[in-house]
Design brief:
Layout (H helix, E strand, L loop, with lengths): L2 H19 L3 E2 L6 E2 L14 H5 L19 H13 L8 E5 L3 H9 L4 E6 L8 E2 L12 E6 L9 H11 E8 L20 H8 L12 H6 L4 E2 L4 H4 L5 H4 L9 E3 L3
Parallel strand pairs: 3-4, 3-6, 4-5, 6-7
Antiparallel strand pairs: 1-2, 7-9, 8-9
The structure holds zinc ion.
The site of zinc ion (ZN) has 8 residues, from loops.
Amino acid sequence: MRAAAKRLMWSVYALARSFLVKAPGFCLVCMRTVPAFLPYRHGSHALSPILREVGIIGSDLDRFRCPACGSTDRERHLIAYLRAHQANLFNDRGILHFAPEQHIRDFVTRHQPREYVQADLFPNNPSIARMDLTALPTQTNYFDLVIANHVLEHVTNDSLALSEIYRTLKPGGYAILQTPFSPQLSSTLEIPALRSPEARLQLYGQEDHVRLYGTDIFARIEASGLSSCVRKHQDALPDLDPFRHGVNPEEPLFLFVKRA
Ligand SMILES: [Zn+2]
């Protein structure tokens, strides 16, 4: 089904649900019932016409933030998936978490990793090391898991970043790489001359994104040597009501492995 038709179907369902069912949401991070999840900025109404046309898949702009704990939809979605299928990725493992999100960080910490390195190009907290994802100071074949959610779309040389992720992973290690993309574009849209924040917002979805990935994102990631273990929401979490739990059912779960 075309993305626009699918989006319309979900919107009609969401609208009908909100008027007819009047059901509150339930946050899978703080495990609290909430009246509704809060939108990102002005919600999906603020999407540019071009992003609407190409059906960008990323954050759920209308059910973005939990009013109780502040978790985002992408944290809730990933945590639901990890709880259901991948809880063994953390306990007693070595983990590198790039641009760490608060609730994913709390989730990882609760699972008692052997070593947990948090890193960012611009760290805002003393517990986060300054690292460039395209020149990691970490050892080769070292980590069991690298997490870099919504990072690649900010990195100018994403193939170098992916090579570095591959290098620092142990054989058999995993990478979690949630990234927004368009299912309507077969090729990634990247215009180096496009530098103004407003133009990037219109074309890529955020002022500091440097491209809009197309469906070639999976091949681009696999070009690093990583192998796809990506799953669709409906396959991985068929019983999870995306509206009640404030997650985007269009968003795949981007898990990759460095084959041993
Ligand atoms: Zn919450």
